[in-house]
Amino acid sequence: MMPITLGIEEELMVVDPASGEVIADPHPAIFEEARQAAGEHRVVYELLRSQMETNSRICASVADLRTSLEETRGIVIDAARRHGAAVIASSLHPWARWQSQQVTPRRRYQEAEITFQHSVRQFFVGGMHVHAGFGDPELRIQVMTALRQYLPTLLAISTSSPFHAGQLTGLKSYRQIVIAALPRTGMPRELRSRSEFDDIVERYRSIGAIEDASELRWDIRPSAHYPTIELRICDICPRMEDAVAIAALYACLIRLLARKITAGEPLPELSHELIEEGRWLAQRYGTLAFLPRGDPPALVDVDDCVMELVEDLGEDARALECESEIAHIARIVREGSSADRQEDVYRQSMLDGASEDEALRRVLDSIIGETESGSARS
Fold this sequence. Notes:
The chain is α+β, with helices and mostly antiparallel strands.
C-alpha cells in the first residue's frame, strides 16, 4: 500500500467571550504560551494579530491526524482561556470588520500590505489546509490535476462563512470572495508534469512577481516547503469531526487516483470551465448545491456526489482505516455544514424575536461551542 502522510493547518481567530468581539491585539502571552506548549506541532503568527495558525505534526494515519488536531486546538484554547479569551474555527466572524484589525508587525506581512494595499487589509479570513505526502513529484502533480474536479465537493461540505460584517451574504463561503481579491488564487490549470509546474514558478520569478512557490495561492498546490500536495480550498470547520472527515476524504481520493494512474486506468474528466462553475456553485449553495459531473455533463446534487464517492472509496477507506470518517461525510450533507447551522441559528433567533445583534451573538456562541467541543482541553 502506498503510504500517505497527513498534516493539517488551521487559522483560528481570538475573541472576547464576554462581548463576542474579535480581540484586535490579544495578550502576547497567549501566543507565546501556545507556542511553547506546541511540542511536535507548531503555532505561528498570521497576517492579522487577532489570528493564530496551528500546524500539526506529520501524521501517519487519519487516526493520528485526529489526535493531532485535538492537541493543537486544545493548546490554543487552553492558552486563550488563561488570559480570558476564546478562539473560533470559522472562516469569518459573524460581524467583525477588517477595519478594526491590526497587521502583525513582521516583515513578510508588512511588505504584503505595501504591495497589495486594500486587498490584503481585508484578508480577515481563516482557512483549513490539509497536506498529503505520497509518491514522487510526478505522481503528486498528476494526482493534483485529477483532484481538481472534486474540489467543489470538498468546498461545499466545509463551508463556514455565510456572514460578512454582520450581514447574511447569501453565500455559504464568502471567504472565497475575499481570497479572490489577491493575485494567483483560485483553481490551477491542468498540469501534467512537475517540470510544467516548475516552469510556471520560474516565469513568475523572472518578472519579480514572487520569490517562491508559496506565493501561488491556488485552491490546491504542491507545497513550497514539503513533499506534499496542499488542499487549500476548504473553509475551516468548527466541528472537529467534520475537519477530520474532510481530511480523510482527501486522503482516500488521493489513494484512489494514485492507484488508477499507476495502473494506467482512465480517470474521470471534467473541463476546467465546469470545474470553475462547480466551484462557484459550491461557494454559493454549499451542501445544497448541484455540481457538474460526468461526460456529457449534468448537474448532480452534493448528496448524490457524496454517496457516489463513499461507495467508490470503500477499498481506500478500509486500507487507510478511516471508514467511519468517510461515512461521516454523508452526515455533514444530511445535517448541514457550519454555514447551514450558522444560518439556522440566526434565522431561528430572529423568529424568536431576537434583535439582529442578539441573533448574531447566538451564532458566535454556537461557533465557540463547536470549536471547543472535542479538543484535548474541552
